[in-house]
## 1
Amino acid sequence: MIVVGAGHAGCEAALAAARMGCRTLLFSINLDTVAHMPCSPSIGGVGKGHLVKEVDALGGEMGKAADLTALQYRTLNTRKGPAVRSTRTQNDKARYRILMKGVVERQPLIDLKQTLVEEILAESGRVVGVRDHIGAEFFAETVVLTTGTFLHGLIHIGRKHIPSGRAGEFPADGLADSLRNLGFRMGRMKTGTPARVRRDTIDFSRFDELRGDEEPNPFSLFAEKREIAQIPCYIGRTGERTREIIRRNIHLSPLYNGTIQGVSARYCPSLEDKMMKFPDREHHQIILEPEGLDTEEIYVSGTGNSLPYEVQIDLVRSVPGLEEARVMRPAYAIEYDFVYPTQLKPTLETKSVDGLFFAGQINGTSGYEEAAAQGLWAGVNAALKVQKRRPFILDRSEAYMGVMVDDLVTRGTREPYRMFTSRAEYRLLLREDNAAFRLVEKGFELGLQDRDALEMVEEKERRIELETRRLEQKRVRSTPEANRILEKAGSVPIDESATLSRILKRPEVSYADVEAIEGVTSDLPADVKRQVEVRCKYDGYIRRQEAEVRKFKHLERLEIPGDFDYRGIPGLSNELKQKLDEIRPLSLGQASRIEGMTPAALSVLMVFLKRHRQGKAS
């Protein structure tokens, strides 16, 4: 197989395919930017951290690389329930890139080459290979496109408009044209990146220090304990002068003078966008994030904009603490083409060109983590297609990856898609802390995890179950010492006796409190203790979601034949018929999630699907 693009999606796609036994040709426009982090020097975050954990559990590489290059760990949403707690690391960008490139280069069956792919070669509705900018042709049974922001990429800095896939890199104009010639419906999106300033020109005393967790929570299940000197970030705020500069120069912003046509990310607006849409807010948050140990560059999160360079300098220096800051790289906006993802199957293979797969920003998503997850998904399925094995699909109850892919291929997206915990209906079952228990076995079945990994997870699961049963059976009496511990935890005393499980169910009581009440310190690993506590506390809610999943699975099992004729069904609107015909849902469950589907329309579809089956049987 061939993978075009060696960013986060491309690296995961190529590594997965090669580890499954496929000879894989991986193309990058520039070998010095393999696994480059063009924007934030960080991995993870709310929802995104879940994706990284899932990629790791299946046998991907992002979590391992993030752990080995982390400068700081933070667990987000610690005051909320376990379903929405997420890991985020600050990373050394250069070390991350070099480390990942080395992993790719050393992986057997991967051939890494530098070239600019300009054309998809297809015959009789099937992909056969690619052609590059010097006319060389390369042939394969499957092709995965992970093109990032390179399709007709156009950078905007004020009145300057530079054709580029990223700052300083060629755009992939020919490849974008090739996709249009193959009949793909394409749109335009916009993203951007903030300024970088020199560390020694910042007055850090004007900022609040933001330190990492004392006990780092690594992404990878297989990470060895690593002592890192965690580097702090710093939080500041814009002032009134910042707002005045933007208002005075807003006519020079390509985002506001009509130059940019691409759709912006609603959840990650640029600074000029925030200033104009929220005019009553006096301050907007600025975070200073180190780009690495061996560089003076500081990423100024919150200052993303597309204003002229001279305006940007004034804007940066209007932030308290940055009055003397020297801008090393200006902020910019970038527009690029994407393919409407409803043209894809749930495997991320295109419906119109057999053997052609898309992953990452080409599908209308944003973020390193979303790209890596799609890359692994597409790489696995492209390899399975070559090997004539059943496709790999996770549903919405099994993984955040399943939620994301289902959202894209069923509902599509009109703006850069970003993963949030709120998108997952069954998020209490899809926690970061149980990703390994959900997915390592699947990774083993694919050939991406070894038996040692599987046995390690199975042993942890066994110990969790044993400890959970022990707590359910062990009763403790009401004693002054036990009630003193409960009182210290902010809990009510035991009247006569209670099981340890019943005590642990109390929100304010921790596993450590239960150990103290019992008078025994368990030798169980910390992650096993956390699992026991979470499963015990949320047992009722988990059971309820498991019941909801069973109902969900029922609809997912009601398959819809590929040749089913929606046009002949009375009672469905023409718009819904058109959507069903375009998306071609695989099941009644997927059909139920199509935009515009109503309970009444779903009932009609169910009736005619039953008739169709009866007609086939007779």
## 2
Amino acid sequence: MLSEYDVIVVGAGHAGCEAANVAAKMGSKVLLVTMNMNTIAQMSCNPAMGGVAKGQIIREIDALGGGSGIVSDKSAIQFRMLNMSKGPAMWSPRSQNDRMLFASEWRLMLEKNPLVDFWQDMCTGILVEKNKVIGVKTSLGISIKSKSVILTNGTFLNGLIHLGEKQFGGGRAAEKAATGITEDLVALGFESGRMKTGTPPRVDGRSLDYSKMEEQKGDENPSKFSFSDTKPLNNQLSCHITYTNPHTHDLLRTGFDRSPMFNGAIKSSGPRYCPSIEDKINRFSDRDRHQVFVEPEGWNTVEIYVNGFSTSLPEEVQLLAMRTIPGFENAKMFRPGYAIEYDYFPPTQLQHTLETKLIENLYFAGQINGTTGYEEAACQGLMSGINAHLKTNERDSFILSRNEAYIGVLIDDLITKGTKEPYRMFTSRAEFRILLRQDNADLRLTPIAHTLGIQDDDALNKIQQKNLGVSEIHGALRKTGVSPVLLNAMLEEKDSSPVNQQVKLSSVITRPNITLQDLVPLSDELSKVYEEWKSIDESITEQAEIQIKYEGYIEREEEQAAKLSRLEDLKIPQNTEYQNIKSLSSEAIEKLNRIKPATIGQATRISGITPSDISVLLVHLGR
């Protein structure tokens, strides 16, 4: 008989692994329930982590003591920092990963924690008593008691796979769907919906001709995700790029009458920014080619992920069309692509902690909330795991604001605005991109994680050392003046206008084409401080340069963030009866009653709430 737990996590994907890992790290007794112990942390779609905005999230997870960054580093086969031609707010780390190694590293991390137990079974419902969750029930007829439950069911809730005109139940290829939970939740009063996602075919890398493709190598000096002591790559595998063509598109169109995308079989919304290949050639019919990324699945496999060719067309159409792509003329298919529809629960039914409003101590994380992507799921798992532990130990909840983390932006977007299509994070969703850079995630979040008991003293000492190094380099830049004689030769070399009097180095580094490295030879004091801290950790000198170079922009965003914080500090009582507040619009009353914003700041972000509605609320609150 299974004992009672502090936290039960249902589902062992990216969200479930993070939730179980962090709750156990904080001291909770955790049970991770999964339908298949062999698919823990499986990369269901592409074998990669990070990317634009997503890489920032992985860095934030790592800074908070999560596992995704460490596991990504240990299983990486290639690493690239994207958008290096743009400003540092846009720099985004991305790794290509060994799919099997990624899963095994996550399982190993979980198994090393004695507070994590495992149970292979299908969860078919939740146990509720007086509007409070008290455990779960499984397909084996077992009831397991728990103080809190986190649902991270991915695409498994009543999952339906589409391949051409064929349909079959499943949460993933060759894995059965999960049933019972949706019905339980709907009976309790939850609103549910359907979403769609898809995946491309996998092919035999031995059958491809890479000489007809563009090679895409990793960075020459690869970085890594984790701020801990994981090692950067010494050896990397290349990806490749090729393109579809008009002949490819013509062959794909021959299957449109049997496509679930077009024949009405699929009625739910798919990810707007990751469309299927048939959707792309239909929506962008003026384009005669689309990029296809050829991504290896690992060090010791020939399996290839055909990124950009997601499809649910009949398998014979997939293969014929794929063989018209340069390099794919003799391609052998391992597995066809397919689409999958699944249940989700509109996230406006959640609090900022990811606890449901209807049932106490019940948390949702990942695709059950309408998101798409490993990184989006992982950060929700982390936050739900932290808050489930805090709640069961009667400690204050942990909420990140929009100016503290991309994670804060994501969760606030979900519970305030909801989503009717799979939600994906972009840098454009964040108002404070310059504050929320991937390079300073540790400075922003590790001290908080230390206070929560997730990060240890060594991690905090590293932050204090980094701040000291940045401060000393800034001091040297601010107090060192350089004459035109010394400076102008370098400025001329950099195509930067000369100076006619002595200037401080801190003013020179703000020029767009001048780097800290350019200024080091001009000052013995700067050189000494710079080399000392660079030898300890290169990220310290990088941080010093970014902070002083973009100081004016950072200060402006900090002022805006302070204004937002003042609105976030104005709490709205949860029992407020908006229908009794005169002068509120009828739309405002309906949406405020449905979402029940916790603060004035959150109320301002609800679609349809006007400035005059906010003024009425402020008056009502005595402001």
## 3
Amino acid sequence: MDIGDILALCKRRGFIWPSYEIYGGVAGMYDYGPNGTAMKNDIIGSWRRLYLIGEGFVEIDSNTIGPEAVFKASGHLDEFSDAIVTCQGCEQSFRADHLVDGMHPNPDSLSLDELQAVLIENGVVCPDCNGKLSDVGEFNLMFKTVIGPGSGRVGYLRPETAQGIFVNYPNLLWFVRGRLPFGTIQVGKGYRNEISPRQGVIRLREFNMMEAELFIDPKDKTWPRFDDIADQKLSLVPQDGIERTVTVKEAVEEGIIANQALAYFVWLTRRFLVGVGVDPSRLRFRQHLSTEMAHYACDCWDAEVELAIGWTEIVGIADRGCWDLSSHADHSKTDMSFFRKFDEPVEMEVDRIRVNFKSLGPRFKGQAKSIATALEAGDPSDVIDGIITVTVDGVDHKVNSDCFEVIRVRDKVTGERFIPHIIEPSYGLDRIIYTCLEHAYCKDGEGYIALKLAPSVAPIKVGVFPLMGKDGLDDMAQDIDRSLRDLGIRTSYDDSGSIGRRYARMDEVGTPWCVTVDYDSLQDGTVTIRYRDTKEQTRIPSSDVPSRVSTMLREGLLTWADPLSINK
């Protein structure tokens, strides 16, 4: 199978079209046609039901443009780069790690110097003109813009949806009434100025993401439903590179996956992907090597699928630790902590700030009392290089260490503050859609093509055909079509061409069932229902079509409100 065959079908049948094609197109940009949009919305709907209803997460929708300070704090300004080389002849640019595919088992793990060495050792030249390549450098992938007229304020298109959730953590914590753990999801666009997009929709400059962020106590990364799925099996490739199949429980007990929460969401990801049509025999989870781990992650697993182009990441499940909230707290001077209240006060040694009034009074005069109160309520961990900043009446005051000292005392405390950790399953929606299409693609020896899509994501659920578009057959077929639509079931009414051609059109877009009204239908009230995967045809009363299709949809769909239903 070739990726070109899939993309040709996608264009022909209205799944995916090249963006701006009448102007020559833009690399790394695609549009979704009517069938692609329907399939995309079904996948999003299934994912939402899994997280919002199944796991009790909440959803937000944040801006796609952010000020520079956000991405300085997130690390994207400093860390979000790919290795680039440029041809000194034709001046085309390429990702260095792409040029060494097949020359190293994991090019993503190589440093710039290591990539440079592999390129030189293998005599790699420009793939377009055989010209000499520049030395390997770094290229930041974010799209830069200006917010407002004139010089304005520097901003960037977001490279991920996650930061919109992190900066809203104080609002979210208030919304969930100050409890942990809690989860938030977001669906939306991300933007990455890829150096050399390739492989169709696998690498895009504008793409769709579905991200979930679980805020969790770092001292308690258990998960309440873990025992329910503990015996489910996962195909894992840990850092040692040896693929193995183990239960979720074994993965945690043997230290392959760090904690229950991370393991649960690895399993939940598998459950979702299989539910929307990913072939489980071509799905595995690979742990990131330490050399390829993102700057924010303390552990990360990729859901990888086998495609015509090889094993490809479509979801990343990361334990981001407290990196994000801590960094935003430092840069924005906003409290991103959580207060854990003890069942009873506990006597323990704690650090306190003690004010030196002899120095503080003369320096701050009339404001000394207010500043002293702010100092005594302050957190000693905020002291940096002997200076602490306190805010009084909306004004920041830098206080030097000659005005205070940090002392250790024994005191009864009612609780403690900490920065929550974050477990993040991040889903690449476009890659998931493409994977479902490729894994569903079937072509027989005579060139007949069918997409065996899961009913949950098939863009058209039922084709409705009158044998002829006259003699009342069309009226009966239109009545059936309307009864299905009234139930919210997407249909395609078609009265043109032979029945065989109509079946072929429906098979190519993955329609699970077709209903045909013929002349016998006018006599006995029965119609033919055809099943895509088996080609079996049976007669049923026309009045039974809505309930029969609804039942088949329920049986074909997982019960998304209950993530454990896959076991039943």
## 4
Amino acid sequence: MDRNSVIGFTLLALLLVGYIFFNQQGKAELEEQNRADSVANAKVHPKPIEETQEDATAEAAGIVELVNDSLEQLKPAAYRGEEKKVTLENGDIAVGFSTKGASPVSAVLKQYKTYDKGELVFFDGNQNKLGAVLPIDNGAVATSDLYYTTQEQTDENGYSSLVFTADLGEGKQVLITYTLPKEGYMLQCKMQLVGMSASSLPVTWQTVAKHTEKDINNERKNSQVYYRFVDKDEDYFTIANSDEPEKLEKATEWVGLKMHFFSTALIANDRFNNVTIESKASFEDNSVFVNNGEEPVAVNTTTLDAPLDASKSMGFRMYIGPNHYKTLRSFDIGLEEMVPLGYGPMFFVKYINKGLIIPIFNFLSKFISNYGVIIMLMTIIIRLLLSFFTYKSYLSAAKMRVLKPEIDELKAKYADDQQKFGVEQMKLYRSAGVNPLGGCLPTLFQLPILFAMFYFFPSSIELRQESFLWAKDLSTYDSIASWSANIPVLSSIYGNHISLFTILMTVSSLFLALYNRNMTAQDPNNPVMKYLPFIFPFMLLGVFNKMAAALTFYYFFSNMISIAQQFIIQKYVINEDAIHAKIQEKKNQPATQSKWQSKLEEMQKAQMERAKQQPRKKK
């Protein structure tokens, strides 16, 4: 406290003592002069004791209030004030700030709506915080507890700014500036200290994300925290699986809270140190984050140390916007990794999405507005690109069908010696120029595309609230029937609705499996492989019933193209008689072994030799 404040408090105390002393003296003289009149008047008009006590209490309260008001006026401006809300906005986003704390407390994304067509508020409320601990009073003062004056500014480039100033007295000030461009979702932030000395500040950033999509359980499953270190290494974790705070061991470039289709990220101009992330996505314990009966989707609290530069200021950015791959990639700091295009064991498919699927999708989106049509065209284009492998697969299957009578003869001939049968079978394949894996490898080459689509469609914000046929929103499941009753086991696996695209996908998968069974030679010694294609679609029925309609429609349409493609190739392209004649001609030519066939034959011969050397058991 400075000298002027001390003098002010002293004078105020003297005035208060003098006021009380002279007031008591005046009261005594007045009571003595008017005692007789007062007694006479009291006899005629007696005053209740309670009223007398109330007058005394009111007088004392007035004195205390006067003293408190006077003391309050002596405090620095940053410790007193009235909390108000101010807004900084452009055509894409409106960010609300509180004059107490100078922190973003709300964010409205103007170009998007909630699942029920309401205003999309990503977060709202004073529980959303962004503040630092100041190097005064042994760290007892935080920027979130101070009151600020505000000033609006606009530069020649159309950038709008809000400058928050907190005056702590004795020449100490905190200035926090937020700036928005004319369009976009990147908020520029700068915090500067005046009259205070520090090399870094402890910062707390908390976001309470609101419910914006159709299925809150699916939102929570998709809520994740991503972060990128200054060495460009990246990682993430799913909030629903987070039990303990995550302490990052390296200096960090940014930390992001990713929801299903929207995210917010705190990005350092330099770096963040000692980052600790604590997240929550379950609120069954009547958490303080539940407001007016509304549970948030997730809460993320990040604490970190932010270094100050020579001017005692730190700069950072805050992204608050959609998980749009092209938008996030434009910042060139790896934010696009928050769009899950493939991770875990399937991490490699994200490169297929980035290099093939997304470019085709974006190209078609320039000319076609109906995303259902875009999905169909994408499916056709991808199947055409894979047509060479498809043809090879069908050709190999046709060769195996042609050779089936000869293979059956070998089975009958060597029924008691499976090893000898295997050797003779490989000789037949070699002489006919047939690769037994020729039908499997092309199919395996197509699997990465299927997995790439599995990640792409549920993550594409472009499909959000886009309708096609009976599906009102391609980014979530299409429901033709639903019920509220919770059916044990069934509801947890299948859900409380019926997705028609999922039913069509399952039926088409079963039909395709049946068609392939009739067109492909079957191995009677392996009944599991015989029935697995029919069991597998039912196993996935519960999984895909909750998936995005765009994904299940893609798989359904892809199955229909496969059926049509296989019918055309088998009917009009592949001639089994010509294949048989070519195989017979190949048999008459000198046999040439591939490395793989030679190795396989050597293994079979070695196995036969070991079997001969083993002693036979006595009967």
